[in-house]
Amino acid sequence: MYRLVLIRHGESEWNKENRFTGWTDVDLSENGVNEAHEAGKRMKKEGFNFKYAYTSYLKRAIKTLNIALEEMNLLWIPTEKSWCLNEKHYGTLQGLNKKETTEKYGEAQVKLWRRSFDVRPPKLEESDERHPINDIRYKQIDNPMAHPATEALCDTIDRILPYWKESILPNIKKYKEVIIAAHGNSLRAIVQYLKNIDNEAIIDTNIPTGIPYVFEFDDNMNLIKDYYLADEETLKKLMDAVANQGKK
């Protein structure tokens, strides 16, 4: 059997303030740090023993991974960072309060910008300091997908799936237990692919911060089952909180 754990970073400072974050490099809140510690303790208790780890270029995911692995005495394992695992780019919405944006544009429009498969938020101009082309991490990457002005989930999938097939999947087969610490939408992209969720249904898929999400595969890498390391009541509360971020 092969196991993959997906973990959305712990609560960030902008999650706490209910702001669109995207590729903005925001740190964990105090609660987010605690969530990462608890995730590590929970995975250790459940007997996970990762041999390889992945994360994005954004420190809220990097720190979540490091804190969790430290709780498991696994800081030494190989870790690969990739921009392909970054959050969906929210264009000009980045930094805006979600409820204030909802009051201006309406719940339906904001839900489409946040969760839909192919609706992109308004894009950034290249002169905007928030544009990835102006960030040293991305300007040196010779791939236009590393310089998005905005993204929908379909764009996030387009950059993640080749990386999944070329790097992540072979290492799951090699190491048997792998962890990915990333973001709500980059993980939704992986979940949609693994569970074959259609483009309409994915809009209502909400991934809470700091809760390990386990996928088990058979020897042919067919998905056997998936589950969160949390009780149903806690999980529903956290998922509802994510869903309600864009409501009035």
What's the count of strands? 6
Shape: globular
- Which percent bin holds the helix content? 40-55%
Structural class: alpha/beta
User: Secondary-structure element order, as H and E?
Assistant: EHHEHEHHHHEHEEH
Spatial strand order of the main sheet? 3-2-4-1-5-6
Q: Tell me the span between the first and last alpha carbons.
A: 44 Å
Radius of gyration: 17 Å
Number of helices: 9
Spans of at least 5 consecutive residues whose pLDDT stays below 50 are: none
What would the average pLDDT be, to the nearest integer?
95
Most strands sheet: 6 strands, mixed
The portion of residues forming beta strands comes to 5-15%
Which helices and strands occur, and which strands form pairs?
Elements: E1 2-8, H1 13-16, H2 30-45, E2 52-55, H3 59-71, E3 79-81, H4 98-105, H5 107-115, H6 136-139, H7 153-175, E4 177-182, H8 184-195, E5 213-217, E6 223-228, H9 232-243
Helix pairs in contact: 2-3, 4-5, 7-8
Could you list some keywords that capture this structure?
6-stranded mixed sheet, 248 residues, alpha/beta, 6 strands, 12% strand
Summarize the model shown:
The chain has 248 residues and is α/β, with parallel strands linked by helices. 41% of the residues lie in helices and 12% in strands. The N and C termini lie far apart (44 Å).
Would you kindly provide a written description of the structure presented here, covering whatever features stand out?
The protein has helices at residues 13-16, 30-45, 59-71, 98-105, 107-115, 136-139, 153-175, 184-195, 232-243, and strands at 2-8, 52-55, 79-81, 177-182, 213-217, 223-228. Helices cover 41% and strands 12% of the residues. It has 248 residues and is of the alpha/beta class. The longest helix is centred in the middle third of the chain and has 23 residues, at 153-175.
